[in-house]
């Protein structure tokens, strides 16, 4: 789900079609920078990339004419798909769910709205031919020729040359039997304190993380028995101050700092881990005492004491003067 970062920019992961009509989607981290008038996408959250890492692609918001849900004819096998109609090409993107898709469409359409000033007698007619610059995946710039016209009060860009930009690499969500939750998160290393992206799983016994989704053996498994607490990391200092969607898993020997892609993911991990811990430990122990006084033929009193979860039956016989309880 898209969310607002500390700079009030809409951010989040989407799958971007590598080349138009290629049907090959790559996982990218998008930042909608309205102040900079640009939509940027990165290989990962910039917080997890080396300092100074540049985006792998960008698109000026003024080059966007419309953003809408992709039709079944355009992408019959891709659900939650929407399209950015831009100057040089159409950008097809796949969201995680329907709400995610609607939020991105709304945010992009709102950010790319263009107000066309009313023509005046002194204003010069718009130049029909201009050149747009769109960053390519290598950080350089390629020029695309297109024609700009105002038709019916709307700016229309007609591309003369259609090119596509290339990106590589892909993240894929996976489902594993017996796993309640899985997905990529970013964790802080214990020694060098560096941040690395890892594939996390949660099952009935542990929270485990792998170097990649394809690995069969985890780098580490944190047993539910050892977890003392899991909650959102609110007290931050140093490098943690720059981290959004951060939660911590506290054990007796170490605190694990984990960053998710969105606030919804963070809350989901916390909720599911807490639920599994509760299931692992079982219901809270409750001790109940029941006393029954039964008259006996010899005028003695019989006291029965029940204790749960381990029930004990204690029979005590005494004289009529001994209350026995």
From TrEMBL:
Keywords: Cell membrane, Cytoplasm, Lipid-binding, Membrane, Nucleus, Phosphoprotein, Repeat. It comes from Austrofundulus limnaeus. Signal peptide: none annotated. It comes from the Eukaryota. It is found in: Cell membrane; Cytoplasm; Nucleus. This is Pleckstrin homology domain-containing family A member 2 isoform X2. It is a peripheral membrane protein. Its main location: membrane. It holds the Pfam family PH.
């Amino acid at each position: 789900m898209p969310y607002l970062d500390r700079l009030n920019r809409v951010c989040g992961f989407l799958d971007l079609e590598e080349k138009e009509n290629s049907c090959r989607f790559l996982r990218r981290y998008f930042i909608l920078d309205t102040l900079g008038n640009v939509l940027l996408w990165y290989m990962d959250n910039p917080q997890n990339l080396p300092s100074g890492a540049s985006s792998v692609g960008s698109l000026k918001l003024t080059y966007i004419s419309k953003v809408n849900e992709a039709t079944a004819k355009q992408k019959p096998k891709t659900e939650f798909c929407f399209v950015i109609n831009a100057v040089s090409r159409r950008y097809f993107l796949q969201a995680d769910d329907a709400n995610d898709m609607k939020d991105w469409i709304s945010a992009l359409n709102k950010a790319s709205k263009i107000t066309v000033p009313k023509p005046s007698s002194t204003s010069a007619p718009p130049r029909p031919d201009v050149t747009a610059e769109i960053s390519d995946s290598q950080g350089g710039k390629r020029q695309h020729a297109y024609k700009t016209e105002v038709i019916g009060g709307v700016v229309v860009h007609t591309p003369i040359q259609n090119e596509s930009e290339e990106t590589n690499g892909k993240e894929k969500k996976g489902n594993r039997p017996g796993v309640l939750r899985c997905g990529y998160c970013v964790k802080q290393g214990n020694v060098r304190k560096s941040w690395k992206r890892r594939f996390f799983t949660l099952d009935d016994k542990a929270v485990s993380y792998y170097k990649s989704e394809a690995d069969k053996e985890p780098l580490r498994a944190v047993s539910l028995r050892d977890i003392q607490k899991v909650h959102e990391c609110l007290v931050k200092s140093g490098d943690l101050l720059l981290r959004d969607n951060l939660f911590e898993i506290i054990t007796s020997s170490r605190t694990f700092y984990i960053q998710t892609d969105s606030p919804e993911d963070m809350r989901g991990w916390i909720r599911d881990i807490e639920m599994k811990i509760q299931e692992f430990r079982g219901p809270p122990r409750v001790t109940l005492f029941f006393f029954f006084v039964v008259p006996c033929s010899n005028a003695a009193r019989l006291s029965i004491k029940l204790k749960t979860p381990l029930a004990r039956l204690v029979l005590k016989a005494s004289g009529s003067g001994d209350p026995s309880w």
